[in-house]
Amino acid sequence: MKILLVRLRLIGDVVFTTPVIAALRRHYPDAHLAYVVEPAAAPVVAGNPHLDEVIAIPHRRGLARLRDDLTAGRRLRRGRFDVAIDMHGGPRSAWLTWMSGAPKRIGYSIPGRRWMYTDVIHRPADLAPRHSVLNQADLLAPLGIAGCDPAREPMEMPEDAAVRERIDQRLRERGIGASDPIAVIHVSAGNPFRRWPASSFVALAVALVRRDPRRRVILVSGPSEHSAAADVMKAARAALPADAADAVSAGEYDLPELRALVARAAVYIGGDSGPLHVAATTRTPIVELLGPTLGERSRPWRAPQWFSEVVDVAGLDCRPCQQRHCVPGDFRCLTGISPDRVIDAAERAIRHGV
C-alpha cells in the first residue's frame, strides 16, 4: 500500500501531524508513506523514521506557484498512491490531494472542497477545547485507526548527531560546559496575540540567573525577529551585575539546531509557536505561555512523565479568540501573565528535570 500525507504551511502544525505518521506506520508496517510539505517545515519530517519519502513543494506566489503545483500534481499522480490524506484543508492541499488520483482521498468537511475527497471528516471549530493532534487523528477513522495517544504516539523530530555536535561546539565556544544548566527562552511570535511583553522576558531572564549563577540563558527568536532577542539580551545584561551579564546571550538557530539546543537544555520557555512544539519532541521540561489559545488545544503533546506546564490567564470572557482583533485592546490574556508566575513555573520545571 502507498499512503500520501499532505500538510502545508506552518511548522507547529506539521509537528502536530507526527503522531499520525507513527499511528499509520504502526497500523501499516509495510506501507510506503510519503509526506508533502513546504520547505520551511520540511526539517520537521525530513528524518522521521516512519516515512519513506518527503516531498517538499516550494512556497511561491503567482505564476510560479501555478507551475509548482502542476509539476507537483503530475509527480503525485505518477506515484500511484492508494490513499491520500489532506491534513491541512486549504485550497492548495485539497487540490494536491485530488490531483494525486488516489482512489481513497480523506479530508475535512470544508465548503467548496468536499468534492475532492472520497471520505469527508468533520473538523471541530478552530476554538474548540480539543487538542490539534486529536483533530488530525480524526482523519485516520476511514482507515480503521482510532485516534492517537501521547504516550504511544508522541510528537517526533529525531535529532541529527552532526547537528548535536555542532551545537555542543557552539556552546563550548561560549564557555558553556556540559554541566551548566541552560534555559532556552523563545522571545518572539508570529503575531501580537502570542507575544509576551519584552519587559517580562527581561525580568524572567534576570531572575533565572540571579537565582542560580551557574545558569546560562539563551534567547532565541523567529527568523524575522532576531532583533527582539537582541533587545531582550541587552536589557537583561544591563540589569545584571557586570560579572553575570554574559550569562544571557542570544543566537540564531535553524530548526534542527534549535531542536538539538533544547534537548541539551534544563528548560524551554515560550509561547504557542512552532519552536515550542519542536521543543515538545524532546524530553526537556517546558513552560508554555498561552494567550488567546487554550491549553486543551495547544499544550505540548507528550507522555505525562515529561514535564510541561501551561501558564495563562483564566476567567477572561474574550478568551479564546480568533486573533484578528483584541476586543479589550490591551492583550490582557498575555499582559496579565506576571513574570513571577513564569519564574516559579520555570523553577518547578528545572527541579523536575534534575
Question: Which helices and strands, and how do they pair?
Answer:
Blueprint: E1 2-6, H1 11-27, E2 32-37, H2 42-46, E3 53-56, H3 62-78, E4 83-86, H4 91-99, E5 104-108, E6 119-121, H5 132-137, H6 161-173, E7 182-186, H7 198-211, E8 216-220, H8 226-239, E9 248-250, H9 255-264, E10 267-271, H10 274-279, E11 286-289, H11 295-298, E12 308-311, H12 332-335, H13 339-353
Helix pairs in contact: 3-4, 6-9, 7-8, 7-13
For the largest beta-sheet, the strand count, sense and barrel status come to: 6 strands, parallel
Number of domains: 2
Q: Uncertain spans, ≥5 residues at pLDDT below 50? A: none
Distance between the termini: 45 Å
Helix and strand composition category: alpha/beta
The helix count comes to 13
Number of strands: 12
Shape: globular
Q: What is the N-to-C order of secondary-structure elements (H for helix, E for strand)?
A: EHEHEHEHEEHHEHEHEHEHEHEHH
The CATH architecture name of the largest domain reads 3-Layer(aba) Sandwich
CATH topology name of the largest domain, in short, is Rossmann fold
Q: Helical content, roughly? A: 25-40%
Based on CA atoms alone, the radius of gyration comes out at 21 Å
Instruction: Provide mean pLDDT, rounded.
Output: 94
Strand order of the largest sheet: 3-2-1-4-5-6
Strand content: 5-15%
CATH superfamily of the largest domain: Glycogen Phosphorylase B
